[in-house]
Structure formats: C-alpha cells, structure tokens
Amino acid sequence: MGDGTRVTALNYISRATGEEKQLVLAGIFVQIGLLPNSDFLKNSGVALSPRGEIEVNAKGETSLVGVFAAGDVTTVPYKQIIIAMGEGSKASLSAFDHLIRTPIPSAKIAVLA
C-alpha cells in the first residue's frame, strides 16, 4: 500500500491462519529467491553446502583450484547486491593473483623472435 509518494503498509495473508492482515510501515525491503542457481555444478568437483551454495573461503576460492565464485550463490552471508558486488571484486582480484602466481607449463610458452 502507498500514498503515491511512499510505502505506508503491507497487506498479506497469514500462512498459518489464512487471515488477511495489514502491517503499517514506512518502507519495505524486497527479497527475491532463496535457492541458489548452482545445479550445473553438481558432480563438478566444486563443493556445495547442503543448501546448494558454493562453498568459498575469504578469497572467493572454491574447492577446485583456479575456480572462484562470488555473490548470492556462495556461502557468504547477507545476500544483497552491494555485498555481491564487493565479493565479485574480491574474487576477481583473487583469480588474477592466482593466474600471475601460477607458472605456465614450458610446453605452452612460445618464444617470439
């Protein structure tokens, strides 16, 4: 519900009773989706939590070396866009660090003359 300029109340139906209720308030925070979109990673070697979230450490590293993850699909708490943006930046910096510290196998090094 609103007055044309702001939210004033929330109408909802109680799951427990089926009764229609109204909660007077000054704002709302909308949350969408509670299930991570990680089905494609099953049997990939990337560890998933019991809820299907990708398990990551503080650097965004997964259980598979060289694979990084960030955002709402991970085990990081507080699933909000600004958190996901920061986690994405951290994971990308970790991936860059991994790449510059991983030696290139000699068979893949090209010599330019």
Task: Give a verbal description of the structure.
The protein is an alpha+beta fold. It has two domains: about 30 residues, no CATH class; about 60 residues, FAD/NAD(P)-binding domain (3-Layer(bba) Sandwich). Helix content is about 20%, strand content about 10%. The chain contains one helix and two strands, in the order E-E-H. The protein has a two-stranded antiparallel sheet with strand order 1-2. A hairpin with a 6-residue loop joins strand 1 and strand 2. The longest helix is centred in the last third of the chain and has 21 residues. It is elongated, with a radius of gyration of 22 Å. The mean pLDDT is about 85.
Number of helices: 1
Compute the separation of the termini in Å.
71 Å
Amount of helix: 10-25%
Q: Average pLDDT across residues?
A: 86
Q: Structural class from helices and strands?
A: alpha+beta
Strands of the biggest beta sheet: in what spatial order?
1-2
The CATH topology name of the largest domain reads FAD/NAD(P)-binding domain
Determine Rg (CA atoms, Å): 22 Å
CATH architecture of the largest domain: 3-Layer(bba) Sandwich
Measured by DSSP, the beta-strand proportion falls in 5-15%
The CATH superfamily of the largest domain is FAD/NAD(P)-binding domain
Helix and strand run? EEH
